[in-house]
Amino acid sequence: MAMELQIRNSSKHDDDGHLKRTGTWVIASAHIVTAVIGSGVLSLAWAVAQLGWIAGPAILLIFSVITLFTSFLLTDCYRYPDSVHGMRNHTYTEMVKTILGGIQCKFCGLAQYVNLIGVGIGYTITASISMVAIRKSNCFHKNGHDAVCHTPNYPFMIIFAVVEILLSQIPDFHELSGLSILAAIMSFGYSFIGIGLSIAKIAGGNRGKTSLTGVIVGEDVTSQQKLWNSFQAIGNMAFAYAFSMVLVEIQDTLKSSPPENQSMKRASLCGVTITTLFYLLCGLLGYGAFGNKAPGNFLTGFGFYEPYWLVDIGNVFIIVHLVGAYQVFTQPFFQLVENWCRKRWPESKFMAKEYVVNVPLVGTNRMNGFRVIWRTVYVIFTTVVAMLLPFFNSVLGLLGACAFWPLTVYFPTEMYLVQAKVPKFSMIWIGMKLLSGFCLIVSLVAAAGSIQGIIVDLKVYKPFK
Question: What is the first-listed, main subcellular location in coarse terms (predicted)?
């Protein structure tokens, strides 16, 4: 007990015995932007095209407000029972277990970690598509826009996997700040490029046909396709705001003064506001440029051919961003498995012993035998699954649908009701339940559309060809 008190009172440790946290709201904002402005932004022009000028931006704004509201609820649950002086919850699942109990925790863990794995798969697909786009862009520039420039994705998925295997040896979230800031800068870069190219296309008079309700039944699609594509578009928009699954882990990097919930609310407001602005610009300007024929990925769908070098730069930015975003989303799952293994085999030197390795141009890094093997196997697994399911829009829509209701809405509202001791059937209680019910319906609809899209893709898809 004396030793525990000594650790907790140490100037190098926080009140829970962990090494003192040094994160700020600025770094947390960078983590959020890295997590949120991901591959989702690339599909927004297509998503708006399915819904039109009215429903498209309206649904984007609704998701923005809901995400910001529930993220505020989540930040107040980091410490429990008091949001300022209570005990810390280091992970999302730990928070649910503390406040709602074990059964809810298992449901949360399933939803969170399946989605973290899914995001890694989705980012592997997206990064390879951008690598292929660079090669195609150069081919089209050299041989003309009608040239056959087929390039398989698989070699590029392997290249992405090799880079992620190396970066996955970064021990934990606390050491990701530099990579996260670089990734956030890259996301701004390719968003600006997409916005600029869209404005240039609109100004040049070569814009596509648009409408208030999006793609036109009988002209662009059948009524059935319109319905399923609209559902899938809603899923893509939900995916574009998916960062709740790593919010608690981000908050756990913040220093304790000012209080973590205050800093995290500031970071959430900053991150969600920035991303919503970029989403509206990319989605609406992209739709204005391409109209109802907007490609699924507006920087790799080759609505933009020239200047080819600028398209290439945009795709390089996407790749670098996704390299960092993959780590932001994967670190919580790495930590889950490694913490469980350390508890399961506490005497194992293979699990616990760390070696300090000097990495050229990087500095020293802590290496561990189990970490090297386990994380390498994990990256290989996500890469193989990505090779089997390279469907960009459908996969993004399904991930968004699966993550949105449980992680962004249900658990934050339920934990708030418990922590704030809100009386049953009060106005606040009813409002929270109605919000949760509405979002459940939205998630089910989006999941149905995305699953239908995957089924259609599978009918013509041949693995590894």
Answer: membrane
